[in-house]
Amino acid sequence: MEIVESAVHDEARQHAEEAALAALVDQYASTLYRVAFSVLRNQQDAEDAVQEAFLRVLRHRETLGEIRDHRVWLVRIVWNIVLDRKRRAKTRPETDDVADLARVLPASGLSAEQRAAALQHHANVLQCVEKLPAREREVMLLSAFEELSSVEIAAVLGVTESSVRSRLFRARNVLAELLQHKRSTP
Amino acid sequence: MNPFTEDRFGSNAGAHAAEETLRLIATLPAPEGLEDRVKAGLRSAPQRGMVVAWPFSTTQRLMHSAGSRAAAAAAIVLAIAGGGWGVYSHIQVAPVPSALIEPQLPNGAGHFSTAGAMHVPQTVQGPVVAAPTVEKQTGKAVQVPQRHGSKTKNHQSGTRSTTPMK
């Protein structure tokens, strides 16, 4: 009798965990995808990274109740995944990134020439971002997300908030120099 | 609200243009049906620990508590320590003498002993051939018959048998 009661209780607990996980997917899958895409710049890779992140959550679903901020926690998981994938897929040519970007960037209200010029500008910017040191680049990428505060970026990266600010300052300076150099050289 | 957008019109105009690009990428919408695909992937994922886990979850919940884990760990330690003590207590260690006793040599210290000497069995004494004796009177030689391997009284007494001379 006790076994039956515990089995029923366990089944109910499992259903509750699955429902909580489904709610997390509905709420944060889009955010995680954008974070993943900002690093990988490939739709399929970004979607795979989101899938892997939620699979990791599924494996540790019993700890869901102990997490205070699910959003930051999930962003941190997917961030580590995409950094790892980026390191492994370093050999991919940059032209793939630009082609993927051209597919997904909004083109409404732009002529073909304007669109080509905008695409070239974005490609130049992304090339300069890739040249930044890793720490500065990571802060730069995460700071582009409006929904992430400096405290949350610090939590994702595992550093202090002042460190985030100083890295962002350095990143901006280096990026400005790189873009200036790129404009001056034909 | 992102705090970094406040100084976007500062000294680094190029950097701000770059941030605009990054912000544009960061706001790109996720593809349609992403959530459904993720949920489908989660449903098809293998469940963890279903093969080796105990089917009744009461034990699992029991083991989740810290006290139960500590008790189980203590029981394991006691079992191992008890087994070790059982083995230790059954081993009879030979007492170590307080002083080293030097063994006595049979022939005294520093001399040779008979230990290891090869003993040769005593062999049977071989036959003794007696020289024939000639009697002067009869001219006949009288030969005393001897049996091989047999001993006469003279042999036993250590004398050689000879015919008396007249």
Write the SSE topology:
The complex is a heterodimer of chains A (186) and B (166).
Chain A: H1 2-40, H2 43-59, H3 70-88, H4 94-104, H5 112-131, H6 134-143, H7 150-157, H8 161-184
Chain B: H1 13-26, H2 34-44, H3 57-64, H4 66-90, E1 133-134, E2 141-142, H5 153-157
Antiparallel strand pairs in B: 1-2
Descriptive terms for the model:
heterodimer; A: 186 residues; mainly alpha; Rna Polymerase Sigma Factor, Chain: A; 8 helices; elongated; B: 166 residues; two-stranded antiparallel ribbon; 2 strands; disordered N terminus
Structural write-up:
The complex is a heterodimer of chains A (186) and B (166). Chain A has 186 residues and is mainly α. Chain A has helices at residues 2-40, 43-59, 70-88, 94-104, 112-131, 134-143, 150-157, 161-184. Chain A has a domain at 1-90: RNA polymerase sigma factor, region 2, helix turn helix motif (Rna Polymerase Sigma Factor, Chain: A), CATH 1.10.1740.10. In chain A, helix 2 (43-59) packs across helix 3, helix 5 (112-131) crosses helix 8 (161-184) and helix 6 crosses helix 8 (161-184). The radius of gyration of chain A is 20 Å and the shape is elongated. The longest helix of chain B has 25 residues, at 66-90. The model of chain B is unreliable at 1-11, 49-59 and 149-166 (pLDDT under 50). Chain B is mainly α. Chain B has helices at 13-26, 34-44, 57-64, 66-90, 153-157; strands at residues 133-134, 141-142. The N and C termini of chain B lie far apart (160 Å). Among the domains of chain B are: 1-44, no CATH class; 56-84. The interface between A and B is large, with 54 and 38 residues.
